Amino acid sequence: MTAAVPEATTARPRLSKLPSLTGLRFFAALLVFFFHITLSNSPIPPNDPINPFADTELGSTLEWLVSKAGYVGVSFFFVLSGFLLAWASKPGEQKRQFWRRRLLKIFPNHLVMWVLSMILFAAAINPPLGWISNLFLVNSFIPDASVYVAVNPPSWTLNSELLFYMLFPLLMVPIRKIPGNRLWVWAWVTVAAMIAVQLVTTYLIPATPVSALTPISEAQFWFGYIFPPARLFEFILGSILARIVLSGRWVPLKMWHTLILCVAGYAAAMIVPFVYSFNVATIVPVAAIICTVATRDIAGQTGFLGSKPMVWLGNISFGFYLCQGVVIFYGRILLGNEVYPTPVAWLVVAGFFVATLLGGWALYALVEKPVMDRWARPRPKPVQPEPAQATVTVG
Question: Could you tell me the maximum CA-CA distance found in the chain, to the nearest angstrom?
């Protein structure tokens, strides 16, 4: 990141869509998939291993390699949400119309997966508080591990997204008022706030009892990773970054620069204290790749990420992400959580990937897109014919 360019810089032309960022979304969802498929403990009781590899050394190595991938994918989505909403935001937009579109974006898919999860496994293993709170996407506000990932475990992120959407019209008022030459300052303030959240997690949240699934306590994991207000700064950063790009103040990085940053950030996430791997270690690479890809789209350099296959994968990425709780976690239970020789285990991974991809496509094609096409925007009001003018005869 660098100092701001002079205020006189002309804002770059806005695109209605950023196709390469749509394609990039799929890779973020894919990171979450690899994180989930290699877990040694399922979030669904009885918490048996998800990892299908009988070769324990290989299985452990793979789990270690992608142990931060899910955190990166989630952080990417939170920053991207703020970026895209600010990118498309227009002063004077009606709050009711904005909230309507956002609710229709997340709730239909969520409700389908909620019902499916309840039928298959959740009603038997989750407390009623988990059922109800997850239905309304408020379960992540409750510091109880049996509740905050209840029903369809990946849906905990929708709690944060829902909070972001409700606050966005209010947040954009002060964000629009930030002078252009102060945008970078406020971007770094949000990064400092993320660090502060993890300092609170480390020193003020009870560190015992230690969770069976992470090296920290359940309370620390909840506050530092799950609690929606703690993730708000990533969303705000994304909105500020959109203004930085639109005003021409983004650093002119090349894609290989951002890829090096991503590798360095991931390596840092592997060695920093656990709570700083949630978002702090990788936030600069996440910001860099989003803004660099957006600037390439502005310049018409969409490339591979903006190709039709990648845009299609990006469009189904929300469904691909959301159905992982059923396909991967419940699917492994159906298979008896068996482990397999390495070639067979890779086939199992490939099979789960295809099944998750098909599930994501089905959610997009049968639920998300029809709902958005039909109800996301208000119908235009019919044009009323002008009343006929009376003719006065003079005679």
Answer: 106
Long-range contacts of 309-315 (CB under 8 A, 24+ apart): 310/20, 310/22, 310/23, 310/26, 311/19, 311/22, 311/23, 313/23, 313/26, 314/21, 314/22, 314/23, 314/24, 314/25, 314/26, 315/22, 315/364, 315/369
Is the whole-model pTM more than 0.85?
Answer: yes
Whether 312 and 288 have beta carbons less than 8 Å apart is answered as no
Q: Hey, what are 194's tokens?
A: 């993320």
114: three-class secondary structure by DSSP: helix
127's tokens: 């407390």
CA dihedral 161, 156, 290, 3 (to 10 degrees): 70
Tens of each residue's pLDDT in the chain, 395 residues: 443 333 333 444 455 589 999 999 999 999 999 999 999 998 888 888 999 999 999 999 999 999 999 999 999 999 999 999 999 998 888 899 999 999 999 999 999 999 999 999 999 999 999 999 999 999 999 999 899 999 999 999 999 999 999 999 999 999 999 999 999 999 999 999 999 999 999 999 999 999 878 999 999 999 999 999 999 999 999 999 999 999 999 998 999 999 999 999 999 999 999 999 999 999 999 999 999 999 999 998 989 999 999 999 999 999 999 999 999 999 999 988 899 999 999 999 999 999 999 999 999 999 999 999 998 776 655 555 555 444 443 33
CB atoms under 10 Å from CB of 391, counted, come to 5
Provide the token pair at 238: 């994304």
Contact call for residues 170 and 85 (beta carbons, < 8 A): no
- SS3 for 178-209, per residue? CCHHHHHHHHHHHHHHHHHHHHHHHHCCCCCC
Which residue is associated with the tokens 């070769």?
55
142 Rama class: left (phi>0) / alpha (psi -120 to 50) / beta: beta
For residue 341, the tally of other CB atoms under 10 A from its CB is 11
